[in-house]
homogentisate 1,2-dioxygenase (Cladophialophora psammophila CBS 110553), 471 residues
Amino acid sequence: MPFSKFKTPEKYRYQTGFGSYQESEAVEGALPIGQNTPQRPPFGLYTEKISGSAFQAPRPDNQQTWLYRIIPSVVHEPFEPEALQDGAEQATNYNAYDDLVHTPTQVRWDPFDIEEKADWVHSMHLLCAAGDVSTKSGLGYFIFTAGNTMDPTSAFSSADGELLIILQTGVLDIKTELGHLLVRPLEICVIPRGIKYNVSLPEGPVRGYALELHQGVFTLPNLGPLGSFGCANTRDFQIPVAAYEEATEGVEYKIISKFNGRLYEARQGHSPFDIVAWHGTYYPYKYDLGRFMTVGSISYDHPDPSIFTLLASSEGLAELAIFPPRWLVMENTFRPPWYHRNTMAEFMGLIQGEYDARTDGGFRPGGASLHNVMVGHGPDSATHARASEMELLPQKVGEGSMAFVLEANVLLGLSQWAWSKSNKRQLNYNARTWLGLRSHFKKPEKAKVISPFLDQQLKSSGEVQARVNGH
Ligand SMILES: [Fe+2]
């Protein structure tokens, strides 16, 4: 099926497209015609603009949206550091950039535990990161494990970057300033920097992965020789339609802002979700991974995994690639990924099922792995043995499975929480996965040795040792 079968039915309407100009009005006539800032906007609304790029950014990169709302965003009490109810530790889960652990070893985590009491905002844990939030450089990887719906009179936004959300379990009902998004497992969603939203959990606890881009935004990769379509198709991205609520008399709203990795709160007497109409190019969106048109080799070998890229960041910083169920038909080919080292850091997660290149049972939905810059990795020893011997019939892999990789062109540091405090890091990952690989090298007796290496040219190992020792 070229789309996912969801247990939870859709409840909202959407516009479609990617990066295209959109407009939406929740009340007919609320959008001004032909101009952005009429002297008196329709129905007594205020005009507000949100800019996601420099004003003069080239047209394809320009992200601005005009908002027509009941009360402007500026109307709130001053922001103060968030008053924490469940322990001061929560606020520090976001900002741990000064205390990162950098290690060239392979890292893998067991599935992270749900935190029953934590809501969306307070269940976010930084796993690894690079860069600096205040200078808009780098990115942060998070895991969320929320058991609680956000207070309906609260709204959250991050000034620190655009957030890609990869849900693993549960359902997210996201009310944003620009409209509603229902996100179910196998759907991903992107919330731009600064857009306010509230997350409720209609089906109980949720867990998933998130990547915050401090610089740039997500874009659709170019298709090159593939032509005009394939991989993620433009029409399959879904954008909310305008929806608004009016303030209830006497209700106070809490606005939570993540700003330089810290949480701040402000009070206001009107709903932040009061945009009656909007038009522009800066908006949240979602995408069903089941709609991805997976492309691969139909002859021999397999292409670089970039063939599975769904989203790429505008500044070449990060990419999301997914591994959907697919047919493998390549002849005379080692079909799992080859062993490799990469200048990109590779963070992997699993939404459901079993990833076909890692069948040792240690890479589980809700867990993760990180193979950092130039860190060697590849199939585990059992997968290698099986794939080297198997009969190469056409084969469907990944049935019921969805793994993903979030590559980044930075050297990632691990948060103290990811390294030790969460107690989820597998201490035996390397040994369990690869140390079982044995040499199968056997030089045919009659084959002539033409290696230029010293040890092949010297007659005895004693002679080699003497040279090594400098004698
Ligand atoms: Fe890799």
